[in-house]
Amino acid sequence: MQINDIKQNLSLSQVLQHYNLQPNKNKMLCCPFHDDKTASLQVNLQKNFYKCHACGAKGDQIQFVQDFESRSVGITKHEALLKCAALANNQPVNKIKSVITKPMDENKRIEFLEKIFDTFTKAVYMSPPAKEYLHRRNLTALLEKRGLVGFNSGQFHHAGRFENESNPAEARKEVIAQGLEFGLLSEANGLSKTGEKAYNVFGLKSIVFALRNQENQITGLYYRIADDTKNYKHFYLKESKGLFPHYPKPETKKLILTEAIIDCASLLHIPEITNNYSVLACYGTNGLTPEHLNAIKNLKELEEIIFFFDGDKAGRTATAKYAKELRALIPPLEVRGLTQVETPEGEDINSLLIAYEKEIFMELLEKRKTVLLSSEENLLEKSQNIEDIATTTKEQDPIREKYITKKHPSSSIHHLTIKPLDFLKKENLLHNINELLGKIGIVGEENNRLLQYVTATTYKMNYNLHVLYQGSSGSGKTHTIKQISLLIPPEDVIYLTRVTESSLYNYKNGEFMYKLVVFEDMDGLKEEALMAVREMISNKKLSSSTSIKDKKGNADGKIKEVEVSFASLSATTKGELYEDNMSRIIVLSVDESKEQTKRIIEYKNKVYQGEINKQEQEQTRLFLRECIKLLQVYEVINPYANLVELPDNVHKPTRMHDIVMGVINQIVLLNQYQRNKTPQGQLIAEKEDVINGLLLMKDSIILKMDELEGKIRLFYEALKKFVEDKAKKADKKREEIKFTRFDIKDCFLLSKTQINAYLQQLSSAEYLLKIGHSNKGYSYKIAHWDNFKTLSEEQLQKMLDKLK
């Protein structure tokens, strides 16, 4: 066999496996050629090359064999070639031998499942997708007690898991063999990144629950996919046995049977239930197994079995079937009691836990009714016709109202008694969303907050919008954009308070795809970072030319590109500094009027007095997140686009037109469950969408037409009113009225610095006439009485009139 043939049929990975050597995740291992306490030997399994950074040993797979065998008895190159040829002849070409599994007894299976589930329980605390899923399901309380739930990250057989073992390679081989034997792994075609045999992981990225036998040992696993968008939701490990959460205690008197494991898990962290009842999960409407029946039969003190199945036809049918089966199996139950909880139509235990207070379960349990078994018709008649329950739920809903509003009976709760999809199908969607925005703590500024919400929701669409919210320090702008960002799924939000010059160019491709980026203070961005943000908004791509040195130190030019697609919310106190960015974004100004300040203080007083239900606010945020997850990406056709004519003096009209049309399109997308579609699947905008878009954008359009910055314009308009009032009192013409900064200070809630800055800018723009000298103090007169705001609003109103 020629040397090339040996190298072709024998890889370095196979040589390492032959000597029971296993590289870690960084492709490093302790060097076998010197006394190595820390891993210093680096291997490149793709190029079949190794090098020790400590002793200098290096070479290919043949050299490795010679070096390794020479530790005890020195061998020549020729002897090393013979050894490699023998190894190559025993190996299939370019493949690694499959791990040979051997049957193991039940005790070893239990021991293996216990060990694997322990890795799953550790992973659930470190996995954002797992914690997000539990949060969506309102099951985060399960994490308070270790061992109730786990997460399969798919890494339990990776090499890095075995670094602390005395023999990592053997330990990993054993886990892989057991994984194959019991169905947690299956062989995949091809090799892994490390050049080894690749494996498929059963139940990858799933929430995992353990099934236990009578000795409380794990004998099975139940997987539930953490991604709700997948069509397949859950499955069991092959040959799973056991019950969830465990066998009922022998002294059990009252036993609740749930339809599914996730329903059972939903009840486990409610002390009022676990202290008074035992809970046992069935495995679906056909999942009351012989093991369940045997466990129930052995409960000598059992007085009552309570069926708490889903509120649908399948759940009611299963209740009737199992009740009949249990009465035949355990005759005394006819006397002791078979009862059922009347679950509201279309609900299950977990959906109730997500939407309502936990006390609803105690109310439903208290109102449970006896299951009568003479016939299924009799069962449905005697247990208060389930359809009547659904009607009562929709019309009166006494249980829901009692527990959702138990602390604040006067607060509006319609957002908790409706599902997200139904909410999106209701009329006046924008108005309803705006109401919810007020309930989460965004006080006043109805137009601004709704426009920011519309902007934020474009992060997952093909066209993205961006808002710059300008106002003085302490005006509440950062609070508002943070509250809006909390309505977006947290995994889709990036918060930035400071950005260095070139950092945005160094992100990996895709890290800014379909994200909401929150710049909490644009003033913290360097000039080059602002330019990068500008390019990200305009081109949806960052491109930079940079030099990279190769291994020999030679410099080489390279173009690095970062694709982006994001919406953004930004806050600033210096809007005038971002002239180049302003044409690309929606500019909003904080309402800093006395009336708004008064509203904010009144709200804060309610917070301090404990009158604001923070739990309800959090439920509202979660609810709006779920609504966003239901939105799909569509192309929008706007038959009224030709009626959208912006005023002639608007700044950068083509860009402003695109922004306005983007807002209108997003309003259509928010209403996608209420809009008609073309045969090609495009959403058709209605006149109402165009009007709402223009009304939302009115203030921003006016700001773009104005040479004065937003907060300066607000000050100037208030100053004109102040002078007019003063003129009336003095019975003079308004042009004759003089005032000083002290007059302004007495009337406006502004600091000396702000007043001086505003007066300076208005004087520079020739809106004010400055009179006097520095040694005697200055007084001012309004030199230019414009009617800008009224004229601008009239222009926009004409455009709106065309649409009516």
Structural category: alpha/beta
Mind telling me the C-alpha Rg? 35 Å
Residue stretches low in confidence (pLDDT < 50, at least 5 long) are 91-104, 374-416
Structural domains: how many: 6
> How many alpha or pi helices?
31
Cα end-to-end separation:
88 Å
CATH superfamily of the largest domain: P-loop containing nucleotide triphosphate hydrolases
Largest sheet: 6 strands, mixed
- CATH architecture of the largest domain, by name, is 3-Layer(aba) Sandwich
Number of strands: 25
Q: What key attributes describe this structure?
A:
single chain; 804 residues; alpha/beta; DNA Primase, Chain A; DNA primase DNAg catalytic core, N-terminal domain; Dna Topoisomerase Vi A Subunit, Chain: A, domain 2; 6 domains; 6-stranded mixed β-sheet; 5-stranded mixed β-sheet; 25 strands; 16% strand
Question: How would you portray this structure in words?
Answer:
The structure is a single chain. With 804 residues, the protein is an alpha/beta fold. The protein has six domains: 3-89, Zinc finger, CHC2-typedomain (DNA Primase, Chain A, Alpha-Beta Complex); 98-242, DNA primase DNAg catalytic core, N-terminal domain; 244-404, Dna Topoisomerase Vi A Subunit, Chain: A, domain 2, CATH 3.40.1360.10; 442-611, Rossmann fold (3-Layer(aba) Sandwich); 636-705, no CATH class; 710-790, Winged helix-like DNA-binding domain superfamily/Winged helix DNA-binding domain (Arc Repressor Mutant, subunit A, Orthogonal Bundle). It is 42% helix and 16% strand. It has 31 helices and 25 strands. The strands form seven sheets. Strands 16, 17, 18, 19, 20 and 21 form a six-stranded mixed β-sheet that branches. β19 and β20 (555-572) form a beta hairpin. The longest helix has 21 residues, at 710-730. Residues 91-104 and 374-416 have low confidence and may be disordered.
